[in-house]
Amino acid sequence: MKRLLASLSAALALTAQAQAPLPPEIAARSYVLIDLAAHKTLAERDADTAQDPASLTKLMTAYVVFSALREKKLTLEQTLPVSKRAWDERKGDPSLMFLDTTMTPKVDELLRGLIVQNGNDAAVALAEGVAGSVESFVQLMNRQAQAWGLKHTEFKNVTGMSEPGHKTSARDIAVVASRIIADFPEYYPYYGQRDYTFNKIRQDNRNLLLRRDPTVDGMTIGYTDAVGHCLVASANRDFPNGKRRLLSVVMGAASKDARASESQKLLNWGYTAFDAVKVFDAGKAIATVPVWKGEAKEVKLGAADAVFVAMPHGDGSKLQTQVERTEPLVAPLNKGQRVGTLRVTTTGGTLVAEVPLIVQESVPVAGLVGRAFDSIRLWIK
Q1: Statement: the pTM of the whole predicted model exceeds 0.90
Q2: Nearest to 89 by CA among 62, 109, 111, 114
Q3: CA–CA distance, 15 with 37 (Å, rounded to integer)
Q4: CATH number for the domain including 308?
Q5: Which of 18, 26, 76, 378 has the alpha carbon at shortest distance from 230?
Q6: The total number of structural domains that make up the chain
Q7: 235 in the same domain as 298
Q8: Which segments constitute the Peptidase S11 D-Ala-D-Ala carboxypeptidase A C-terminal domain (predicted)?
Q9: CA-CA to 96 of 20 to 30 Å: which in 90, 145, 358, 365?
């Protein structure tokens, strides 16, 4: 997992090194567009500028709750009390699922209130249910941000209300959103729910693209006076070589409609300006190499997933690959162990992607005679 996170964080920070198409003019303070299949930034502007995260904060709030569910610290059917602190959120902001202290909603209901209705009261109730207090939960949020290496993010609350020191950047938000999609596919559908009714109060999801573009299946919105209107949108479109998911983060648009239209513009451009080129299928051996002092004399190396790269439209044929690996490879080798790197470059030598190469099948240590024989061969070599 650490290797995956490091690879993803580095990939999200990598801009196109080959000559790339110019993105359209986006009327927003900052933005970033990521191809999640290729782990590549397609376009960005001021993506590392720290600013008020608004309700985009709730992406990390949800991630920490999802983690608690996976660790069985709570369940979807578990009920949680509504504290006076959660109820007091009514006083400050209209983003609510309208909880009161007589209620004991289920975790599942609170997650829908958090994600679909953007409820600040739901955020507080969940934080207290997971960590005992909002302050302790915020520590978990910041710990996760630090684990991912988010350099421009610090959380002070779970709702996104403006507060000194509460900050993030478009790129950091893209990391959080992409981790939700990758790590919790079972919970990601919450972000595509178009409306939710709780206590007979129906509210529409404020992500307008869920109704405008059938390929957009999530994520979330935000607004404060300090940053303006924000939208994280994830689209998944069909292409001849499979589905292709793009993720856009737009921060500081002028209105609710503008954040939707500018996000749509960015997504449409990404799909038309770049092609997703599949270099290798998932599970396919990329190289077969010799092994020393092992029960097997050779081992297959591959990538953890299918290898995609994003190339400017029409340039997909201008690619070449190179394997860099540990030499010599000495047993024991464990399945999934990283022993090299696949470099994908243009024919002109420009680096397009670097993918960890891992052992596809374990190779145990050979017996005494086999080890001794290979030791002699290595010494001669």
Answers
A1: no
A2: 114
A3: 15
A4: 2.60.410.10
A5: 26
A6: 2
A7: no
A8: 274-365
A9: 145
Strand partners of residue 342:
323, 355
Residues 234, 365, single domain; the answer is: no
Same domain, 247 and 285: no
In this structure, the number of other CB atoms found within 10 A of the CB of residue 318 comes to: 16
pLDDT tens-digit series, residues 276-285: 888 888 888 9
Domain end position, chosen among 247, 274, 301: 274
Q: How would you class 185 by CB atoms within 10 Å of its CB: exposed for 0-12, middle for 13-18, buried for 19 or more? A: exposed
Domain span at residue 324 reads 281-380
Dist CA 355 CA 338 (whole Å): 10
- Residues 6 or more apart in contact with residue 291 via CB below 8 angstroms: 297, 298, 299, 329, 330, 331, 333, 363
Tell me: the pLDDT tens digits for 260-273? 999 999 999 999 99
Quick one: 43 and 142 in the same domain? yes
